Amino acid sequence: MSTANPEVRDSALTVTTPDGDFAAFVALPAATPAPVVVVIQEIFGINEDMRETCRKLASQGYVAVCPDLFWRQEPGVSITDKTQEEWDKAMKLYTGFDVDNGVSDIIATIATALKRPDAVTRVGVVGYCLGGLLSFLTATRTKVDAAVSYYGVGIDKHLDEASNVKHGLLMHIAEADEFVPAEARQKIVAGLSGNPHVEIHTYPGCSHAFARHAGVHYNAVSAKLANARSTEFFAKYLK
């Protein structure tokens, strides 16, 4: 799937950390300098879904950057949700993933991206699945201007950090998420609903990854609604 926008350009970025260097996919808008949005991957790496997400954000006027957060385990992962073999690999990577290192790599990505001449100082993050958790944690551990979390897995285990959210956080929660039990979803909503910086939307009947482009659980109506909310949210906080 393509944005079909000839003015959006694919690019790349190298992020340097004390532990080593890793790559990031970049989609550039027609007009720069522009705000930065860091796109945080699912358990499938920087696949076509993540690249398309970046291109759509670039078409909306953002420098979209997707870091390779699996680089410590296996650089360059790009798989789908279509086969059991791919799922097995994705779950192996997920279980071996260090969340704190992931947040540190996102922070390094933000710092590197903001040094680009085509970027301005406003920055947001958006994450999906594992990335939804990392987006939440980035909101609690940094001063990003805006964070969007799609069906984050494991957020209920980190609610002790919820009071640290001081800037805009938008959450999209699937009510039939097979990876986030109802009790966990209720804890997340209860733990965050009192924070004036947090906006929460739930999507009845939707499974995990309902907004994944061409995903097996893609729900066009709910994905369109969630993405429209995200577009409005980023415009409010970043432009």
Reported for the largest beta sheet, the result is: 8 strands, mixed
Listing every helix as H and every strand as E from the N terminus to the C terminus, the arrangement reads EEEHEHHEHEEHEH
Helix share bin: 25-40%
Overall number of strands:
8
Which percent band covers the strand fraction?
15-25%
CATH class reads Alpha Beta
Taking the alpha carbons of the first and last residues, their distance comes to 27 Å
What is the level-2 CATH architecture name?
A: 3-Layer(aba) Sandwich
The general outline is globular
What's the CATH topology label?
Rossmann fold
Instruction: Report the C-alpha radius of gyration, rounded.
Output: 16 Å
Low-confidence stretches: none
Instruction: Quickly count the helices.
Output: 6
By CATH, the superfamily comes out as Alpha/Beta hydrolase fold, catalytic domain
Class by helix and strand content? alpha/beta
Number of domain modules: 1
Global mean pLDDT: 96
Main-sheet strand order equals 1-2-4-3-5-6-7-8
Organism: Pseudomonas schmalbachii
Pfam families: DLH
GO molecular function, one term: hydrolase activity
Keywords: Hydrolase
Question: Please, could you describe this protein's structure?
Answer:
With 239 residues, the chain is of the alpha/beta class. The chain has one domain (9-238): Rossmann fold, CATH 3.40.50. Helix content is 34%, strand content 24%. The chain contains six helices and eight strands. It has helices spanning 48-59, 84-95, 99-113, 130-141, 182-192, 220-238; strands at 9-17, 20-28, 34-40, 63-67, 119-128, 146-150, 168-174, 198-203. It has an eight-stranded mixed sheet, with helices on both faces. β1 (9-17) and β2 (20-28) form a beta hairpin. α3 (99-113) packs across α4 (130-141). The two termini are 27 Å apart. The mean pLDDT is 96.
